[in-house]
Amino acid sequence: MAKADQLKALLKSHFEGNDSHFFAVAMQMAAAEAKRGHGKLAQEIRALIDEAKAKKSAPVSSLPIPITTPRGELSSLLSVSYPKLRLSDMVLLESVSERLKRLIKEQRQIKKIRSYGLMPRKKLLLVGQPGTGKTMSATVLAGELGLPLFTVRLDSLMTKYMGETAAKLRLIFESLNQTRGVYLFDEFDAIGSQRGLLNDVGEIRRILNSFLQMIEQDTSDSLILAATNHPEILDHALFRRFDDVVEFGLPPKELIEQTLNNKLLQFKKKDMDWKRLAEKAEGLSYADITRACEDAIKDAIIHDREEVSTEDLLKPLQERQSIRKK
Ligand SMILES: Nc1ncnc2c1ncn2[C@@H]1O[C@H](COP(=O)(O)OP(=O)(O)O)[C@@H](O)[C@H]1O
Ligand SMILES: [Mg+2]
Question: Is the C-beta atom of 188 inside 6 A of ligand 1?
């Protein structure tokens, strides 16, 4: 790719706040320089990228948490981020994108809707196999609405505070009232498992009941999202408490092609055999496809190639397929 295009791509990803894209283009520029025989410059660019990446991945707790209740306690229950991802960064089934767009629209008009005594949509249950975009959708909703994303680590909440989980949940719901944000209860199965399946039935039931009650009573302006890989073990009483249930699935062929296109960034060759690639990727999740593309790109970068060919991508896709079958 020409230098001018790289520069434009670099600026664009910077303005959009798309870090992963930004780093990928920067790495690509380093590869291009290395190829031109500018080894020192290439090395310097890579060192700069490494340094910036190390800074970016500083622990979450170093970010200011805009919560007024005791910082120490809440920060062990919630992790916060300020995502910039947008809906256009995702490749989605029509049924999923329609639901997400509807929620965004209602949330953007929250004052107007509330002024008529109505509640905008705000409680979503996200259901589907791993790697199909549930967590990413929560991130995108926060990004689109300019809200912080608070992720509740339910599994650690339950193991760490067995016996006090309900009290901790109450604390989270208080913060939900105080600080508007997107609250994601990830790996929701930990709490939502059908009452009776687990050993400590009493405790689970108490937690589940108080969670149901808190959802029901919630009148905050925050969004409540719960994500699960196992809808079949969820109690049906739960489904009714949500405004919408969004079902995520593996991408069909057309969307596989779009995902590959999207994830290869500027690295794709002009004459990619999309049909063959889509066939090879069928049955893989978005996460698998993303990994395969990243592997192919990394391989290109390591060998100072500027492009990824169909053959280069078939191999990591095959690898993902084998892992999946295991
Ligand atoms: N619909 C999508 N469009 C583009 N990339 C996706 C999509 N879904 C998932 N991904 C990629 O896969 C990764 C894992 O997805 P994630 O949202 O964590 O899956 P889940 O929470 O359903 O297990 C994401 O970080 C992203 O790179
Ligand atoms: Mg997830």
Answer: no
pTM higher than the cut 0.90: no
Q: Which neighbouring-strand residues pair with 225?
A: 124, 184
Q: Average pLDDT over the chain, rounded to whole?
A: 85
DSSP-derived letter for residue 178 is H
Domains 61-247 and 250-326 share a fold: no
Strands in 78-81's sheet, in edge-to-edge order, are 78-81, 149-153, 182-186, 223-228, 123-127, 244-247
Q: Which helix (H) or strand (E) holds 44?
A: helix 39-56
Ligand 1 centre from 132 Cα, in Å?
Answer: 5
CATH-assigned architecture of domain 61-247: 3-Layer(aba) Sandwich (3.40)
Which pLDDT value is given to residue 208? 76
Contact between residue 256 and residue 132 where contact means Cβ atoms under 8 Å apart: no
Q: List the residue whose alpha carbon is closest to atom 7 of ligand 1.
A: 133
Q: Which of the four pLDDT bands, split at 50, 70 and 90, describes residue 61?
A: very low
Residue 303 has pLDDT above 80, yes or no: yes
Contacts 24+ apart (CB under 8 A), 4-11: 5/266, 6/32, 6/266, 9/265, 9/266
Looking at the domain 250-326, which fold is it?
A: Helicase, Ruva Protein; domain 3 (1.10.8)
